[in-house]
Amino acid sequence: MYRGRVFRQHRRGETKKLTGAARYWAAGGAGADDTGQALDAFGLDARLCRADCYEVWRDNLPALDLFLAVATQWKWLAGMERARRVGLDYAALEAAMRMLGVAGKGRARMFGDIRAMECAALEVFNGED
What we know:
The protein has one domain (16-125). Helix content is 46%, strand content 9%. It has helices spanning 16-26, 35-41, 61-69, 90-100, 105-125, and strands spanning 74-78, 83-88. Strand 1 (74-78) and strand 2 (83-88) form a beta hairpin. Helix 1 packs across helix 5 (105-125) and helix 3 (61-69) packs across helix 5 (105-125).
């Protein structure tokens, strides 16, 4: 399920923004960045900050779109206390890559980006963040 909006912009080439976006999404669109704290530090009104979005670099858009496309494809493990997510279904991820036309060298890079986002989301989902 897609929770919250993710504001998309430009990129530097690292997965930090992607993992931040994944944490933001997994937390339901809250508490993933410290923009409000930064504004407070400069004496600015934190309410001026758009709290319903998370900025990512433009070059990260294909990975973000793919992650959101498979956002319902989590594998679950049921334990004695609770069920928890353990990772994305990579068969569904591969199918989504094919449907979105991800091919060649871009496929390996995209897979790495998705795995980084998956790990970040799992930390939030499983209370490790």
